[in-house]
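Retro notes, item 3 of 5
We never archived the inputs for the aspartic acid complex last cycle. Fixing that now. Sequence and ligand:
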Amino acid sequence: MKLALHWQILIALILAVLAGTLLGESATFLKVCGMVGTLFLNALKMLIVPLILAALMNGLIGGAEQGGLGRLGALTFGFYVGTGLIAILTGLFWANLLTPGVIDGQPAAPLLGLSGDAGAIVAQVQEKGAQDLWAVLVRMVPTNPVAAAANGDMLGLVTFGLLFGWALSQLPGELRSTQAAFWKGVYEAMTRLTALVMHGAPIGVFAIVTGTVAKTGMSALQPLLLFMLAVVAGLLTHALIALPLVLKLVARVPPFALHRAMAPALLTAFSTSSSNATLPLTMDCIENKAKVPRRVSGFVLPIGANINTDGSALYECVAAIFIAQAYGLDLSFGAQFTVVALALVTAVGVAGIPSASLVAIAVILSAIGLPLEGVGLILAVDRVLDMCRTALNVLGDSAATVSVARLSGEDGVFDQPALKLRS
Ligand code: ASP
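Structure as it came back at the time:
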């Protein structure tokens, strides 16, 4: 029997802590670990550009094909942005409350084995912070999309992707269907490639964590535990307070009925870390248990699985703030705003596959001027948190579907009579 990936990674993590503690003195061993860890990170980074583009094209063309925009589209979009923003602000709240990147009043970068020169990085970020919000907006439109991709200017690439995807969705008949098939193929291929790279995750995690533990000892775990706590507290707040409130006040259904109805889908999301893989089950639960008509679920869910990712958006925000704290940065209002705005935009590009958020976090880090090595750090605990945030992604999609159905005047959702709507 093959051990599931998350168990493999958990075991790799434990072994890495042991190996780092016991063999930390061996320079050759650490050199090999350093090389393998870098190889794995390189492989992940290699996926970034095509994955972002293919995910965006699929979301946009698919969205347009499933009925275009209109009342349903506007409601869906509004709901996704609204709940996404609530999720991100919840993450911001917990990250600022628990400050996982600060240990005993000191930035945790040295404890975590982050090698970047903190002083230089602070200067770099302040330089970026000096560019006001207007400059951030200006940077959103790249002069050359190919250069944006090559230089790792992901914000520019995402903007171009959104515009290009919209334009593709407007093409007539055969032109559009050819493009749709093409991007679907690219997306499928990237999904496979990501899965392939994830096979190496236990080894990659082992190599990276061994190096960290050898360099820094177990003290590296303390800030990571607090980071995990901040993420889980945020996810629970959103799942058990924010979404139930929205369901009660906006959709006017019993606030926890959805959690019960969606249990099988939530568990599948938790075990697979993929909201895309869970989609058939999500559809089944929402249609058969929550009794949302297919007209609505068929439109809202497939789009949601690709663009509505409350859990991922929250995670991205906590991760970026955590890494900034670890480098001793007191993020200005402008920088925090950038993090929130980017989490909202990049969450659209986060594919419903395992570890897709890491790409978005890399985007945010580079936008606020932090080194990408922070992603390597988070990787050690990413899988467990991926399981949790994916479950919230699916719950968020389901809450959106129920709310949109109710606000569209559908009858019988959770056996409730239709809401009386003013037209
Ligand atoms: N694994 C998540 C999902 O499938 C995406 C992510 O946050 O990495 O929804």
